[in-house]
Structures are given as structure tokens and as C-alpha cells.
Amino acid sequence: MYVAVKGGEKAIANAHALLARRGRGEESSARVDYTQVRDQLGVLVSRVMAEGSLYDPDLAAKALLQAQGDVLEAVTLLRSYRTTLPRFGVTVAIDTAGLPPERRVSATFKDIPGGQQLGATFDYTHRLLADELADGIPDDPTTSETSASGGDEQDADTERMPRVTDLLGVDALIEPDRADGEDWTDPDPADLTREPTVYPMSRAERLQALSRGDEGFLLSLGYSTQRGFGRTHPFVGEVRVGEVEIEFDAPEIGHPVHIGRIEVTECQMVSQFVGGADRPAQFTRGYGLVFGRAERKAMSMSLIDRALRHEEFGERADAPAQDEEFVISHADNVQAAGFVEHLKLPHYVDFQGELVLIRRLHEEFNERARGQQP
């Protein structure tokens, strides 16, 4: 758009050169390799993968380097690259109940089958800025040493860990995954990247949009629901972080094929109960599932998921987090960044039109003022 300005092409080339120079920094300093970003900034890489809708730690790390640490720019690069990739089909729905988590905590029960696994977390650090990061790597802690409760190391690794919400479901203390009479077979998944957004959306479509939504925006909305703007009274049923197997359903083979593993974060949120004359009181659900290590994102997502389900429970919608179109339309940070940042591009014609109009209004106002003078 700026090329139309006189000398625009040369100015753009110089701007690119200056950007590259700023990104390189002092030539005496070592150049950062993308593998360092991938291995040492894993949480940041996870965010770019989640919001970029593409699970590839190497590409996410390269995008962060190219974007000079600008998360939204890196997400935009990754999404742009994603659009060039062929689509071969759909994978089998992952089974998070069967994944051996690196981290698994529940705030609703002290003792859960398989035990509480603290894993790698900032939750218990002192949040004091260190003068220098340690060069050495601590000894690899065993599973039993990071387990707050539960069985021995072997049991924690091999025992199937049922979801806490499934334990509540045994006594019908929480709503079922699907309503009575609802088809239990998974429908063909919608793809928000290929199909236009139509409101109202299904819950599956909302979860897809939230999963790739901006973490900061979702965090703010999730926080608002806890402060009375969304009718949630949440308990963390369970947060899991770990690697899960991915299987591709290849029709020509006739059975699913294992194609790899990805790291995910899952949050099952237990929220306030509902009931009535025709059914006993039950807790309600909120759900979040995100690429990589992203606990805040998964928890925020689960809070908003529950807030957006107000119609299912006949609740009054009077908060921003309960407005589906508001939430989904503004959660996409690539669209938000593009719409805000495009204001920097030339708007000469538009502004001249506004300028002509306001000058004419000034003239009309002055003429009326002169006509009213005695």
C-alpha cells in the first residue's frame, strides 16, 4: 500500500535493511540459534504454536527469531505458512485420559488415582529475579520425587489416570459429557480456517476458536468471569500437561496409524451446579485444551467455555464473556493486530474526505453564528 507513495519502494527496502540490522544486534554478540529458542523458551514456543494453529516447535522458534520476539508477528508468520500446507485428513481424537502426564494436579481432591504430579511448574518458585541463570542442569528428578501423593514411581507411570470429572460422574455429581439422547459419535470436525464463521456456533467450534485465541485476551475475560461478569464459581478439577499419541485415520489402510506425539495442556474446570424439580443438582463443566505448556491459556479457555454455555442452563447473559460473537470475534489476535496496525498505513484519501467535511461544517457553523448576531 505504501509503494504508491513517491519513493516508497526505496523507503521500504531501507526499512527492511534497518529491521534486519536491529534484529541482529551487536555483531560481536553470538547469533541466537533457533534450537536455543526451541529448547530454552519452551513456554513461548508453545504459545506461538497454539495461536498459530500449527504444532511444530522448530518452525515456531524460527518464527520468533524472525519476528525478533514479537509474539503476534511470529503467530502471523506461522499462520501464513500454515495456509501453504496440504491437508491430508483428520487425526483420531486424542485420548487425554490415557496420556502419562509430566504434570497433573487437581484442586478439588487431595488424593486422586495416580497421584498429584507437580512436574515442571513456576507455581512454587519465589518469583525472585536471579542475577544469572544457572549454567548447570539439576539432576533429573524421578516421578516419585515430584509426586505430592499417590503410589510409587512405577504406579504413577503405568497406572491409567482417570479424569477427576469422570470420578464425579460415577455418582452423577457432574453433568455428562453429552446431553441425554445426543449422538455419541463425533461429527466431522469444522475447520474455522476454511469455513466462514457463522453465529451461533457449536461448542466444538467455539473451543476451536478459543484454542487459537490470544492468551492475554482470554486471560482477561476468564478473570472477569471470576469477578462476577460471567456467573462462574470455578474449581480446577484437573490440569494435565504431557505428551499424547497422535493417530491418523488412513482409509486406504483400514486402521489408524501412529504418526507421532505432541505435548498438550488440558484443563477440566468444575463450575457451579445447576438442577431443578426434574433433576438433581449437578456441577457443570468448562474445558480447555491447548498445544504445548500453556496452563493459563487452558484454564482461561475453560472459564470462558463455561460462561458461553449460559443458554444451555437458562442463565441470563449480561457479561462480555457470555457474548459469543464478542468473544470469538475479538479473540483472534492476528485479525486484531492487522486491524489496529493497518491504521499506520496511508489513509490520505480518507482523511482528506474527512478534512473537507469538517471544514465545510466549520463554515456553516460560522455563517449561522454571524446570522444570529444582532
What do you see in this structure?
It is a single chain. By secondary structure, the chain is of the alpha+beta class. Helices cover 39% and strands 14% of the residues. It contains 13 helices and four strands. A four-stranded antiparallel beta sheet has the order 1-2-3-4. Helix 2 packs across helix 4. The longest helix is centred in the C-terminal third of the chain and has 25 residues.
Summarize the topology.
Layout: H1 8-24, H2 34-40, H3 42-52, H4 57-66, H5 71-82, E1 103-105, H6 153-158, H7 164-170, H8 203-211, H9 215-226, E2 235-250, E3 255-276, E4 279-291, H10 295-307, H11 324-331, H12 333-341, H13 348-372
Antiparallel strand pairs: 1-2, 2-3, 3-4
Helix pairs in contact: 2-4, 3-4, 3-5, 4-5, 8-10, 9-10
Short description:
The chain is an alpha+beta fold and 374 residues long. The chain has helices spanning 8-24, 34-40, 42-52, 57-66, 71-82, 153-158, 164-170, 203-211, 215-226, 295-307, 324-331, 333-341, 348-372, and strands spanning 103-105, 235-250, 255-276, 279-291.
What are its keywords?
374 residues, four-stranded antiparallel β-sheet, alpha+beta
How are the strands of the largest sheet arranged? 1-2-3-4
Oligomer type: single chain
Total beta-strand segments: 4
Q: Specify the overall morphology.
A: globular
Q: Would you tell me the structural class of the helices and strands?
A: alpha+beta
Mean pLDDT over the full residue set: 86
> Tally the helices: what do you get?
13
Helix amount? 25-40%
**Radius of gyration from the CA trace?**
26 Å
Strand content: 5-15%
Largest sheet: 4 strands, antiparallel
The H/E string reads HHHHHEHHHHEEEHHHH
Poorly predicted ranges (pLDDT <50, ≥5 residues)? Answer: 151-158
What is the distance, rounded to the nearest whole angstrom, between the alpha carbons of the first and last residues? 53 Å
